Give the backbone structure.
Amino acid sequence: MALWRGSAYAGFLALAVGCVLLLEPQLPGSALRSLWSSLQLAPAPPGPGSPEGRLAAAWDALIVRPARRWRRVAVGVNACVDVVLSGVKLLQALGRSPGSGKDHTILHSRNDLEEAFVHFMGKGAAAERFFSDKEAFHDIAQTASELPGAQHYVGGNAALIGQKFAAYSDLKVVSSISDIPTGIPVHLELASMTNKDLMRSIVHQQVFPAVTSLGLNEQELLFLSQAASGPHSSLSSWNGIPDVGMVSDILFWILKEHGRSKSRASDLTRIHFHTLVYHILATVDGHWANQLAAVAAGARVAGTQACATDNIDASRVSLRAPREFMTSHSEAGSRIVINPNEPVAEWHREGISFHFTPVLVCKDPIRTVGLGDAISAEGLFYSEVRSRS
């Protein structure tokens, strides 16, 4: 997407990398509840005085619009139709019964689909995989579309983020991203990938030097580090909740090694990391403002959209983020203790600022498709990019 601020231009390009495995099926609430139960964290009684209620009230006080706001937005052309339905019912309709799970970098058959589905459902995580057999894929998509109860929504990173921006009446959303002038801020929203060569190319050559802002989740962050030999790349996967210190180390490495500096021709100055229970905004100092409000706004919309409510309902959400953590495992980091009354923690490391906030996780989610895109769009809406001197 490209974003214009008054007479000055700013840019936002939402890119979807990889093919959608199953048009992003909705994770059933039962699977998420099973995952949360495994965390062995007992939620506090809901209500205004609960940690959830106090945190939501603190967010409302913190979230203020930036002094200089986006005026026009150009979105990328990636769009599709999402078919939202029960993955278990789809497998049954395809004549499959749940068995053992296994990740596949490329799907070739219904059996591969079943194994990948079981694998990622067990982790409570979404995934996107390329399906190599065109005819088989279309048969699966048609079966999914015709199942009773299947719902159809606008899909695709660019379309969903553009749709979110369009909800604000003081913004004009346009579809063209051609002939964007040099110096316009550009945001890249990563999607699930399995090709390390492609990821290395993105990091070193094609994309990172040209983008200003990056949005990604825990799977994409770890894969990026694995592909480019970054911190904690020996991890095969996250074990439960991604460790905050490790995530912080990887974010720091991306901005230090591939972000803007006096000696490097790169525009990258901002990363919005989002996972189920917390978010982190990492920015190179001097380029962005209002990021405390931005990270809080992104976390707040995760709770409201998943629960399909206009405001946070403390009785329907749960605080699952770690209450204390280390800010780094690569160096002597500091220990942070989260207070629901002051829910955004901030720390600094060699010219890079970090803003952390928990997410109030919906206990019985209504719809999770496109949640990452809504989070990134909300965070960007409340962000203020500083003019280049």
Summary: Confidence is low (pLDDT under 50) at residues 1-45. The first helix runs from residue 29 to 38. The first strand starts at residue 2 and ends at 5. The radius of gyration is 20 Å.
